[in-house]
Each structure stands twice: as structure tokens, then as C-alpha cells.
Sequence to fold (547 residues):
Amino acid sequence: MVESLRKQIEELEADIAELEEKIRTKKAEKATASAQVQARIFLERIFAPYMDGLCDVWGLSPEEGLRVLIKENASLDRIANDNREALTEFLNQPEVRVIAAVARPLGEVSDEWIKEKTGVLLEVMWKIRPELANVIITTPGGQRWFHDSLTGLRNILFGKPQINIEKP
Amino acid sequence: MMSSKSDKVVPPKGKKTHTEMLIDPALSGGYRRVRSRSALDDEFDAEDEMQARELRDLRMEEILTKRKARIAKLKREIEEVPTESETREEAKIPGISITVARQIAALPEEERNRVLETYVLMQAAEAKNANAVLPAIVGFARANPGSSPNQFIDYAKAMSDQFRTGVEVAQKMTPTQAPPQDPWKPVEIVMDMVKHSVTEPLEKMSQSMVPQPSAFEQILMNDSLFQRAKELGIFGGRRDGGAGTSDMDLKIEQLRTERDLELKKIDLEWKKSMLERDAQDKRTDAVLTALAPLSAVFAGPVDQRMRQFGQQQAASHVPPGTMPPPSNTIMIRCSCGYEGPMTFPGPPPDIIKCPRCNQDLVVGGVPSGGEPQETDRGT
Fold:
């Protein structure tokens, strides 16, 4: 009886260890896939067009504008906060509200998550805007500026709920 | 800012001070709590056990009632079996043989009537002997025609006495026979058989089916037994380590180990089922599959808005060392309410489209409120 029980318990423990490993692997895969999707949305729909807009007015190429911003440590959120009126108007645009609601999970990610997933974010950046990714990587302080800008834009878009999504 | 707050169409958040995570907790460093057994679970288990016991008692009562009803029915059937005396009364046929009856019928009517009268009288007096002496009476009537009724009776009495004497002599000469059986005896035998074969086994079975406390429970419920058992070291062995209690100690330890292992097995099975459910969790997949197409739908408008937002911000923040805004950037002002810069690689065309309402706007024109809309030359 006891031996039989011990054998069953050993089998159960082995099954549990296998399941835990399977869940760990699956979660890691899911986290990576999720990070890639969210990073793509964030970089492709928010970061890159914003940079293009800035550089359009400054008369610089995106690469040049990015180098200037990294050099003077002017993160994107700092620039946006310099003009609160335009920022408020922008955030109240219907399209921005919709995309903010769709990308709502991005608002929940922590600073640590962005820091940890910087590699994933840069990898996605390489796919959609390789020239910008190269500037971020090669310019001193580029990755820190990138992190600060991402967290700043996250705070601007999701720091204050522009679309009321009630939470339980 | 105040106006934007008043535009909200959803009620305020109330007292809630936190927001719920809509993504997989693994992405934000969260984790899923595994609920452990609480005191409430134990309470529910105890209640379930009590209900099961009550159900078992009710079932036992039902079985007992059915068996009692069956026994009562058997008793009634046994009582309805006809007794020996009743059978004898129903079979009360004169013990006259056919030969004697023919002889009686052959007698003259007067002698026949006297024979029958004598037979009836004899039967009334001694029923058993009447049949025996009837042939002799018939012979007397044939041998002595015209005899008086008294002579018939005297002869019948004499023959009856002689018959009785002969029977007594025969009884004395033969070995003692068993006394006549009591007519209720077979019934009692059958009753005993029923009792031994049906009633007692049923009662024993009923008693065994009623939940009886185990030996261990009886010891626990009885103070004196408990103390005695304690002194004997049944609950963990004696301090003197006597050889007499070592087997009991081993048995108790074995039972304890089995119980612990059973509990551990149950716990592991539960944990395994939880993990299996977690392994099939597809919530993150659902989030991913929802995000991509939705973002694609709004990709164009949002790209445009972000670009315009960047252009607006650039006007208010010019980093040192950058060139002033080129002359091919114009400020758009549309009757739809849109107002913002738009940059072109070369000179702007004469007519452009409003980024918001997609209407044609004349570059360098003056806003008139009519159509087509107009634009101002930008900085």
C-alpha cells in the first residue's frame, strides 16, 4: 500500500515538473510574442511617426533628428510636455482614443518590463525602421534615451485615462 | 483640461484606486495565486460527510422496513395454512366400505332401517367403534330377521365392548407407539425455520450495516478505555520501550504514513489538474490575435495624427543646432476644425487634401467658410 502510494506520488511529481517546465516555456514564448506585437504597435504607430513629424519641421532627416535628441537628452515626452495644449488636443482625437484603447495593454507594462524588453523593442525597430534602430544603438546614451522616450510616451498616452475603461 | 473631463460619457471610477491588468500577468511580472485549503473547505467537507451519514441511515431504515414487511407477510401466509383438525372435519366421510354398503342395501327394508338406526346410535355414542361393528350388525340382521330394535342395540353394544377389548389387548401386545402429534407442531417447526433462516440473519445484517464505531473510535469515546490504552502506550509507544508495544507502534506509524501519503497524493493531483489547466491557457493568444488586426485598422489615421503631433511639437521645441523650419511647410486651417502644419519635400502643390475630412484645400487661399476650403501659407 505504502509502496504503491510512493510510486504514484513519484509519478505525479514527475508529471508536475514536466507541466511546470512546459508552462514556463510556453509563457516565455508568449511573453516574447506579445512583446514583439506590442513593441511593433508602439514603435510603428506612435514612436516612428512622431519622430518623422518632428524632423519634418526641423528640416532634418529622422536619423539626424534622432541624434540631436539623444545628444541633448530631449526625450519625446519632454518635448510633448512643452506644449500641453497641443498634447491635450492630440489625445482627444478619436483615432488616438481608439488606438490607445486597442493598445491599452501597453499602458500596463512596467518600466522594468520596458527595460528588460529593450532588446525585443530594438529587434522590432530593426524590422520596421532599421536606420533609427542603428542610430539608437550606435549613439552613446541612445538606448537610455530610447527607454526614457518609450516610458514617457507610455505615460502620456496611458498615464491619464483618455478613454474611460472601467475596471472591476 | 476641464472641458475634456466634462466630455466623458462613462461614470466616474468611484473608490477604486487601481486598474486591472488586461495582459498576461507574466508580461508585467505578476503571478497567479494558487488558492490553498481554507477552514471553510474543511467545514464543507464535514457537512458533506454528515449528509452522507444521514442518507445512509435513511437508506438503512428503508431496508429494515421492507424486510419487516416481508417477514410479516410470511407470517400471515403461514397462519393461513389449514390445520389438521379442519382438514379432518372437511373430510368427515362415513368409514363404510362398499361391500358393507351393498350388504345393507340388500337387506329387507325393515332390517335395513334398524341396522341404520343402530349404526347412528352407535356413532353418536362411540364414533370410532361404530364403523367397526357395522358389518357385525349387518350379519346379525341377516341371521336374525325380525329382531327388535333393543336386540339390535344390545348386540351392537356387546360387539362394541368386544371390539374395544380386542383393541386394548392388541395395544398391550404391541410396542408403545409415539403419542399423537400436536397439530400446531408442524406450524411451530416452520416458524422456527423462518426465524432461523430469515429473521435472525436479517437482524444481524441490519446491525452490521448500521455504522458502528471502530475499535479506535470506541477507545477514544470511552475515557477509561482511553486512559488504559494510553497507559499501555497504544498511542505512541511506551517509554520503557517494551517489546509488546513495538508492533502497535509500527502499525500506527504505518497508518500515519499511509494517511500522509494519501494527503500528499491528493494535493499533488489537485496541483497537477491546476497546472494542466494553466498549460491550456490561451488568454495571451487571444490578446495577441485581437491587438494586431485592431491596430492595423487604425494604423493609417493614427500614423497621420502622430506625425502631425510631432510637427506641432517641433514648432514649440527647436533643439539648438537645428535648421529653422523649411519654407515648404505650410499651416492648414480647414472649416472642419482641423488646424496644423504640413510639410512637403518640395514646393507645396496648389491644392491639397485636409488630413481630417479629406476635402480639397487651396494652398495660399483665404478661409471663407465655403468650398473649396483654403489654406494659409505656412512658416
In short: Chain B has 13 helices and five strands. Chain B touches chain A through 74 residues (CB under 8 Å).
